[in-house]
Amino acid sequence: MSRRVPTAALATVFLAGLALPATPARADTPQPSIGVGTTRLTPGRPVTVTGTDWPSGATVQAEVCGARALRGSADCDTLRAAVALVAADGTFRVALVAGAPPSRCPCVIRVTARPGASGAQVDVDLDGQREAALPSLAPAPRVDVVRAHISGSPGLAELFGASPHRTLTVTVRNPGTTALGRAPLIVAWGTGGTADIPVSAPLTTDLPAGATRTYRVPVTLPVAAFGRYSVGGTYGPTKFSSATDVYPWGLITAAGLSALLLVYAIGVAGRRRFRERPAEAAVPPPDAVGTETAVELAGLRAFLARAGNGDDDRMIALHTLLRHASGKPELTDRQGLDDLVRLLAPPLPSRPRDTTSAESDEPRNARSQEVR
């Protein structure tokens, strides 16, 4: 019984939790909003549009629209649209020149984050524009994008990092039985599969029933473009997209060759330094050290015996011998040479004193006595 009571209590608590109504999650994320300097607009004069709580780094487009933009871009003055970049804190500021939208008022200023996306809008009054009844929300006319592709081959300058130039070709068709009015063509490019940087597109014309139109839009990509770029947009309510790959092969090849030349130069310098390194002197075996030393000392004694008659001559001769034998002219330790002469030189034979040269020999005899 003591084991079943806790289990039953836990089961009761669990079932009670399931019976409680779920608390809906609060939407803490603020929605994008816009503000205008004035709600009374005059065609041809600018108005300041500001925004808060927009995605950081996004490109927004502001435009004046009629009929409260119920039909999207078809009701907006896209020719005078203004584009701005959202700052890191989610705000933007742009000056928009008011113009006459293709639809009658009531008018609004609409801001979208990218072509064809929903955004925010605020009601405004436009001088000189009469208001009309809002159009009925009939189904949007159907427009088919038959083909959207990018053409163009890289030039020599593009291979070394210049701005790539491509052409976007968009072919649209009206599959309905009624003619369609002038629908806006909006084109943008970007990286990572998102096209959010606007491109100037040509004006469109009316599209009769069953007719086909082809529009060509020049697209210029940034300097040193590398990788895959997406190019897309909307024609009326229909979206389209395409992509192109851009690689500056000339610049990449030049960088690779520079790296190979640097490695080759380092290798040549290393081999040259190794060849110019002096060969190390051969070390005689231990058994031959004593014998060679004795032979060298005996030869040195014989050389000193055949040298001059004075200590200076012996020291000069010994210095010359050691300098040529060692290859080190800087060996000039005179005190060491004096000690070496005193140890190795045989005793000098006595000579009769010459009275005529007593004064001249006195300094030499004094030096000889000092040496002995």
Give an overview of the whole structure.
The chain has seven helices and 15 strands. It has 372 residues and is of the alpha+beta class. The strands form four sheets. The protein has a five-stranded mixed sheet with strand order 2-8-7-4-5, with no helix packed on it. Strands 12-11-14-15 form a four-stranded antiparallel sheet, with no helix packed on it. A three-stranded antiparallel sheet has the order 1-3-6, with no helix packed on it. It is elongated and about 135 Å long. Residues 1-27, 288-295, 356-360 and 366-372 have low confidence and may be disordered.
Average pLDDT taken over every residue: 75
Shape estimate: elongated
How does the helix and strand content classify structurally?
alpha+beta
Distance between the termini: 122 Å
- The ordered string of helix (H) and strand (E) elements is HEEEEEEEEEHEEEEEEHHHHH
pLDDT < 50 stretches: 1-27, 288-295, 356-360, 366-372
- Share of residues in helices: 25-40%
Proportion of residues in β-strands: 25-35%
From the alpha carbons, calculate the radius of gyration and give it in angstroms.
Answer: 50 Å
Strand order of the largest sheet: 2-8-7-4-5
Given the structure, what is the number of helices?
7
* Main sheet overview: 5 strands, mixed
| Count of β-strands | 15
Q: Any key phrases for this structure?
A:
four-stranded antiparallel β-sheet; 372 residues; disordered C terminus; alpha+beta
How do the strands and helices of this protein lay out in sequence?
Layout: H1 4-19, E1 33-36, E2 40-41, E3 46-52, E4 59-65, E5 82-85, E6 92-97, E7 107-112, E8 119-126, E9 144-151, H2 156-159, E10 165-173, E11 185-191, E12 197-199, E13 212-220, E14 227-235, E15 238-246, H3 249-275, H4 287-305, H5 311-326, H6 334-344, H7 358-371
Parallel strand pairs: 2-8
Antiparallel strand pairs: 1-3, 3-6, 4-5, 4-7, 7-8, 9-10, 10-13, 11-12, 11-14, 14-15
Helix pairs in contact: 5-6
